Every structure is written in structure tokens, then in C-alpha cells.
Amino acid sequence: MSDGDFAVAADESFPVTGAAPPLSWSRTVPRELVHRVSVAEVLLTDVREFGAGRFAAAVQWPLSHPTFPRGGRGAHSPLMIVETLRQLGIYLPLRFCVTPPGPHFLITDVHYAIDPRAEPVARHGATEVTCSVAMDGLRRDAASGALSGLRLRAGFHADGRLFATAGGGARILDTDRYAALRGPVPGPHAPVGGSGTRPDPDVLGVASPHDVLLALGPDGARLDPADPRHPYFFDHTSDHVPGVALLEAARQAVAVQSAGWLRRPVACVLRALRFTEYRPPAAVQCAVYGTTGVFRIRQGAGPTAVGVLRYS
After folding, report:
1. Between the CA of residue 167 and those of 10, 33, 152, 240, what are the distances in Å?
2. What are 160-211's pLDDT values in tens digits?
3. Residue 1 has pLDDT above 60, yes or no
4. String of b and e for 66-87 (b: at least 16 CB within 10 Å)?
5. Across the beta sheet with 283-289, what order do the strands follow?
6. Rounded to the nearest 10 degrees, what angle do helices 79-96 and 243-257 cross at?
7. Which tens digit of pLDDT belongs to each residue from 283-292?
8. Which of 106, 59, 66, 105 shows the shortest CA–CA distance to 84?
9. pLDDT at res. 16
10. Which residues contact 24 (CB under 8 A, 6 or more apart)?
11. Taking the model in full, what pTM does it have?
């Protein structure tokens, strides 16, 4: 990984003005088009297509989110960027492309970088964010023509300024192809909620003990959510641990390792190597080097995800 993976690069953005109608922040897009059960967790309000795989999206970040408290300056949680990108990666194929029936979206990698000098501070009401999005790297099934993979790059704008960039890739599989890839699913298909010593929520920078995703033991941290029905991380059923939960578990592990000093990463890279199962609980391993945390999610024979978190 190079420093370029973490830079807020202006060339990953493009003007969001043009012939398309103005964006609207009046109502959210249908929840099923971003794979959310709770309407309150839908961030997208409007998307306009400009052609050649370019889009502009209106996004609303709530002033108060129960899972993601604002930082000391009132800035939004960086995971709002990741969740916005996740919703875009589902909405765009479903709305603008031919996708397989009952699609399964599998994150292959995700990254973001924030410019703390430019990012918006939550004021009254919600923060209106405009995203300029490029969808490329499209792969299609040879027989059906349905979309089977893509890459996204997005620039995040508020108050007329670019404050973050993000990107990542995903595979898209229909029910049969997913079943063939997945095979028999071991263990439970949902979080169980274990026991053990939990880190202090204040050390982690989370609002509630219910937001803790780690349990601590003699062998270190493991991914074992305190609340198996968490309204954000486990909003809908899944037969494996979602990528956003993996990233948050890694962030919490770095916070524990640094005794609460490193809590708000301004950049990250995560690469998913294989499925992370709910049982047995995966080990969340990390090492801290100054303002950089390197992490690995490990389960069974080897790692399921690896990545880097950087802090200002």
C-alpha cells in the first residue's frame, strides 16, 4: 500500500453541475435499493446520471446518529463515508444497470481518505453531502449480460468543498452463483452475542456498550458483538459478518491497542480475502506504528480481511 491509497485526490472528483435536474434532499431512496431494513439508516436521497458511468448523488448525514457520535469538533464519523459508498454500490447497479435476480453484493475492497481541514461540522439538522461518483471496471456475465462486478470512485463535497474521496470494488452474484461460491454455511447465520471482558466504550469512542464489537481474552481481541441485534451493523440478515462490521471491529482494536489515543481514522484501506463467519469468533489482530494501525481479521486457517488505518 502506498501513500497514494490514502490521499484526498481532486482528480477522483468531477463537477456535479450540468444539464441534469438539480439534486433533491427531500426524501430517501427506497430502502430495498440500498439493502436496508430501517428507513432511518438510508442515507441516499437522490441520484442523477450524467452518462459514461458518471453520477451525482445527494446524501443526508443525520445530525445525531446513535451508533456514530460526533467527534470533539462535531465532525461526522468516518464510517458514514463507508456506509454511503456501500449504499451507492448497491443502488447504482439496481437502478441503472441490468443486475441478476436476488443479487448478492460482496465487497472486495474499500478505501477512503478525509481532509480534516475541509470536512463539514454537524450543525442544526442534517448535513447535506453531494457525491460525484464514477462507476467503472464493469464485468458482465457472458450468458445473461447481467452485471457481475464493478468498481466505484467517489468524491464527497459539502459547503462547496471536496472533503473526502473513497472507492472500492464489489462482486455481484445471483442466488445460484452465490450458493455455488458459498457452499454449506458453517455455524449460525446471524450474530450470537458472546461473553467476555468488553472494552470501555469511552476508550473506543462509541456511544453505548451495545456498540462494542469486541471481547477481550488472554489471546487478544475477538469479533464478538455485545448486541447481536445491533440496529446498524446487523440491520438485516446475512450469512457472514458484513464488511462495515469488520472495519469497525478493526478500528476498535486499534483504539484498545493505543489505550484510546487512536480512535478516529482519517484514512483506511480494507481488503476482504474470504468470508468471515459468525462462529467461531474471528481474532482481530492489530499493531500500532505511530499514527498508523495495521490490522488483520483471522479465522481458522488464515486471514479473512487485512488493512491499514491512519490517524491525524
Report:
1. 13, 19, 5, 22
2. 999 999 999 999 999 999 999 988 876 666 676 666 799 999 999 998 899 9
3. no
4. ebbeebeeebbbbbbbbbbbbb
5. 44-51, 54-61, 127-140, 147-158, 161-173, 104-114, 267-272, 302-310, 292-299, 283-289, 220-223, 214-217
6. 170
7. 999 999 999 9
8. 59
9. 53
10. 45, 46, 58
11. 0.91
Find where cell 444539464 sits: 19
What is the arithmetic mean of pLDDT over 8-25? 63
Residue type, 146: A
Count of positions (residues) in the chain: 312
The cell numbers describing 210, all together, are 451495545
